[in-house]
Amino acid sequence: MKLSVIVCVYNEINTIEEILKKIDNVDLPSDFEKEIIIIDNNSTDGTREFLNKLKIANKYKVIFQKKNYGKGNSIITGINEATGNLTVFQDADLEYEPNNYSKLIEYLEKNNLDAVFGSRIMHDEDYFYYKLNRFAVINLTKIINFLFKGSFTDVATNHKLIKTNVLKQLNLKSKGFNLDFEISLKLLKYGFNCGEIPVKYFPRTYKDGKKINFLDAIKSLFIIFYFYFKSR
Known about the structure:
By secondary structure, the protein is of the alpha/beta class. It has helices spanning 16-25, 47-56, 71-81, 100-110, 131-148, 164-167, 179-189, 214-229, and strands spanning 2-9, 33-40, 61-64, 86-91, 115-119, 160-163, 194-198.
């Protein structure tokens, strides 16, 4: 069995080395190996040069975008490159711990699921630094659940573990942060079996480099209704 880890990167020179070390050192179930696919979205802070050294060393599969096409585009590029049985998404900013991978895999296999999300909402603790972000996540999730008959608590989580063959069937289109919502609603719309487990979350501030904003929430709402009214 193989796990494909898709790492989306944009101007993360302060965290990229540490997150890759964590991914390298993570313990997976004994029958799993991993491939690490890094998509750089045209970084300008030295990240690209750092990753180029790793690419020359042939340690990871590194893909450089010619310009900033958006995070969603980077994930779709990574999905097209993935050869594992399962795929998990990993931001390079240290907000999510790679140690979650084994828990996600075990829950998926135990419950015979197609996808498992690592929810930041299932905990009693409030991990969100900005209350508006939490409000948007909760309410956009509720809209998806209502329209597509789901039971998610956090469709915007980065830690999504999904069978690779399922991901490749979704015909994903969104180029920005709204891809998280397209993935979630299509899993429900097409009848795939999904579950969630709680994960810890270590949010960063906009000063630290957080990139998602209120406009992304508006775009995500548009995507939800667009695919609700659109046929397969």
